[in-house]
Design brief:
By secondary structure, the protein is α+β, with helices and mostly antiparallel strands. The chain has 2 domains: 206 residues, Arylamine N-acetyltransferase fold (2-Layer Sandwich), CATH 3.30.2140; 86 residues, Sandwich (Immunoglobulin-like). The chain has 11 helices and 17 strands. The strands form 5 sheets. Strands 9, 11, 13, 16 and 17 form a 5-stranded mixed β-sheet that branches. A 4-stranded antiparallel β-sheet has the order 5-4-3-8, sandwiched between helices. A hairpin with a 2-residue loop joins strand 14 and strand 15. It is globular, with a radius of gyration of 22 Å.
Length: 318
């Protein structure tokens, strides 16, 4: 009986982590492009009963309908708000009014940057009576950021409480990405319920409370990691070494990387900054460990590794 009970608990936890939201996504895909947060919330309440389904519906609609505003990202408007208040309650009311206006504009224009995505998701959760928070902190997109600790937050995302446990989602990164100055719509399911052991490979909260809830890592450790691509994070492949983002190139001019769970027939290439053509590393395997040897490594450059035509890791070399 005890073994059966333990098996049930394990099965339940796995089902929550890997829940199939195909039916939710398909239904939400048929929704109109709502112009008000309340209208979206009302439709979600009508169509779904569980908090998991409602949360997913809000996440999916926002990722699919709000377009990232690159113009605002590269030419940000200074957001400064001045208001007076007599009580703490009045202060909170005025702050909420400002957040509500951010959400209202995002729904009207169907555009925004991370603040619009995060505040919109939080607003929908509020309307659905689901506990959620906006998290401010830092993310990294370029190998130039490796080793450079930032003191000012550059991103916002969300935590939502389901089944009495907090999960992390990032609607902004789920909506798409930039390529050569253009925003490409591409839904990334990975950023719904980011695996706990991988959160700090991409996101670092400014509030220590959120760091402690998901692990132990310093800002120095966060910034000294390689840049991880989503396709690597959303796979079973694990970087065993090197785990530091800065590679010291010695007289041998060789870089050695080791991975677990790398499929044998994977296409693997690399480039250093400025190279026109990708090159193949020397590959060797022992049991479940795949070793890559990169020869003629360049100093003071950036190394990008590709697996199956997708950039999965970036390093800085010295």
């Amino acid at each position: 009986m005890i073994k059966q009970f333990l098996f049930f608990i394990l099965l339940f936890s796995i089902s929550i982590q890997g829940q199939d939201f195909t039916k939710v996504d398909d239904l939400v895909a048929s929704y109109p492009r709502f112009s008000k947060a309340q209208d979206l919330a009302d439709r979600i309440i009508k169509d779904f009963s569980s908090e998991e389904e409602k949360t997913r519906a809000a996440f999916y609609w926002l990722a699919k309908n709000i377009r990232y505003n690159l113009r605002e990202f590269y030419n940000p408007k200074k957001r400064s708000y001045n208001f007076s208040y007599a009580t703490e309650e009045e202060k909170e009311q005025k702050l909420q009014a400002l957040k509500d206006e951010i959400v209202a504009v995002a729904f009207r224009t169907k555009t925004g940057v991370c603040e619009e995505y995060a505040q919109s998701f939080k607003k929908i959760c509020d309307l659905l009576d689901i506990e959620a928070e906006v998290i401010k902190g830092n993310v990294r997109n370029s190998p130039q950021e490796i080793g450079k600790i930032e003191s000012i937050s550059n991103h916002a995302w969300n935590a939502v409480k389901l089944n009495n446990k907090w999960i992390i989602i990032d609607v902004t990164w789920a909506a798409g990405h930039e390529i050569n100055g253009k925003w490409i719509r591409k839904f990334e399911n990975y950023f719904y319920n980011i695996p706990k052991d991988k959160i700090f490979k991409t996101h670092y909260p400014e509030d220590a409370v959120w760091v402690l809830r998901f692990g132990r890592i310093s800002s120095e450790e966060f910034y000294n990691q390689p840049i991880y691509g989503t396709s690597l994070l959303d796979s079973k492949i694990e970087l065993v070494s090197k785990n530091k983002g800065i590679l010291k190139i010695d007289s041998s001019k060789e870089v050695k990387l080791k991975f677990k769970h790398l499929v044998e027939n994977s296409l693997i290439y690399f480039t250093f900054k400025g190279q026109r053509f990708a090159k193949k590393p020397i590959i060797s395997r022992l049991d479940n460990i795949t070793s890559l040897k990169i020869k003629d490594a360049e100093k003071k450059s950036f190394l990008t590794l590709y697996i199956n035509k997708k950039a999965v890791l970036q390093f800085k070399t010295e």
